[in-house]
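Q: Sequence in, structure out?
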Amino acid sequence: MPLSPGTGASSSIDRPSVGGILDVCACGPDSFRGDSYTRARRVYGGQTLGQAMTAAGRTVHNDHRPHSLHGHFIHPGRSDVPVDYTVERIRDGETFSTRQVRGSQGDRIVLIATVSFQQAEHGLAHQDTTATPAPTPEALPRFEDSVSASDLGDARWLRRLLSTVGVEFRFPEEYPRLANRRGEPRPPVQRAWIRTCESLDDNPLTHAAGFAYCSDLFLLSAALPPHARHIDTPGMQLASLDHAVWLHAPFRADEWHLYEQHGYWMGNGRGISSGRLFDRDGILLASTMQEGLLRFR
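A: Exactly. Output:
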């Protein structure tokens, strides 16, 4: 039996506005402020990634669009305090522009990121893989409508996720976390159709930052399924350490794309996961990588 609206359906939950999150305001020359939109104690990592990319993009020419972001999460961000972003103009070339962004709350550094921008150009092109065939997102139910109460167990984690992150997601296969909750190991792979919950404006920077926001969702947890553990396993300590995004072609973050994730290594209290984002035709649009802390206290 699916979750009822009273126990976790997204229609009964006030979802964060991704457009509002990404709309950082200028506070001075190369200085911006982003508000936090979450009921969680800590700021969702994708929020700072998306806001940092937006802040950096506000300082480059419109014909230079983001192609990569490399971020290090220094301290957990507080959700009741805005994040201030200071942009340093590292390089402005004919083809590439580079910015370093420091996100802070008071004297506490939350994120340090490097964002690179490139003017569009033509050249050699190929990709070595395409997406594994999957049912279309329209043929799949919303995750919160597809899971029985017995499989889900305690629904609080899902309500917390839905109220914290403005991303809609649908899984072509069983979400490995559900099997892990039953004590069953799974391969370190998972995939979901994802998009922002709301339509975004037409600015390409908004959609690049919108995917940066979405890209943090589930990624690190892909390393846990072989161990039959999940992020809410008692004693589990999970924290993102660094995160990278490479954008291969323009796309809209408010349209459905298939996000494949592979947690290919875990050890020494850390795990590493990679991600690939495909369109409906199997074209690779973006790649991600994340390392994080995964250990028992």
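The domain at 15-120+133-296 is CATH 2.40.160.210 (Porin).
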